[in-house]
């Protein structure tokens, strides 16, 4: 996938500008970010795209010296599952984060 980066958003789109996958995050300050949303287009679900995307997000945070927490339930679970590999980007606040899926019509 061809990943694009904006402040608060990492995503991939088709040539026709259709959203394929997206992670959004809020900058909380002091190098801390909250991943608040993940999305994968229905036709790509179950193919590992969400996990691939989170790996891209984690590497982006690592390259920018950011620490992550996640109020998005998928991102929260993924970070906990990959805690050892990405310990340097996971905030101590992760375990205390209330995780829930943001509903915005794309799910």
Task: Characterize the structure shown.
With 107 residues, the protein is α+β, with helices and mostly antiparallel strands. It has one domain: Aminopeptidase (3-Layer(aba) Sandwich). Helix content is 22%, strand content 30%. The protein has helices at 49-63, 73-81; strands at residues 4-6, 9-13, 19-29, 32-40, 67-70. A 5-stranded mixed sheet has the order 1-2-3-4-5, covered by helices on one side. 26% of the residues are buried. The model has no long low-confidence stretch (mean pLDDT 91).
Concise structural overview:
This protein has about 110 residues and is of the alpha+beta class.
CATH domain topology? Aminopeptidase
Helix content: 10-25%
| Radius of gyration of CA atoms, rounded to a whole number | 13 Å
Order of helices and strands: EEEEHEH
List the strand order in the largest sheet.
Answer: 1-2-3-4-5
Q: Which superfamily, in CATH terms, is the homologous superfamily? A: Gcn5-related N-acetyltransferase (GNAT)
Number of helices: 2
Number of structurally distinct domains:
1
Distance between the termini: 20 Å
- Class per helix and strand makeup: alpha+beta
Q: Provide the residue-averaged pLDDT.
A: 91
Largest sheet, in brief, is: 5 strands, mixed
Please give the CATH architecture.
3-Layer(aba) Sandwich
Beta-strand percentage?
25-35%
Poorly predicted runs of 5 or more residues: none
Backbone shape: globular
- The tally of beta strands, per DSSP, is 5
The CATH first-level class comes to Alpha Beta
SSE arrangement:
Layout: E1 4-6, E2 9-13, E3 19-29, E4 32-40, H1 49-63, E5 67-70, H2 73-81
Parallel strand pairs: 4-5
Antiparallel strand pairs: 1-2, 2-3, 3-4
């Amino acid at each position: 996938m061809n990943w694009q980066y904006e402040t608060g958003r990492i995503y991939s789109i088709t040539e026709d500008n259709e959203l394929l996958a997206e992670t959004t995050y809020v900058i909380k300050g002091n190098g801390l970010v909250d991943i608040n949303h993940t999305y994968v287009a229905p036709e790509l679900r179950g193919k590992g795209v969400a996990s691939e995307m989170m790996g891209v997000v984690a590497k982006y945070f690592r390259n920018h010296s950011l620490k992550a927490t996640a109020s998005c339930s998928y991102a929260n679970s993924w970070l906990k599952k990959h805690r050892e590999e990405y310990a340097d980007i996971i905030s101590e606040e992760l375990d205390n984060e209330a995780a829930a899926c943001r509903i915005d019509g794309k799910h």
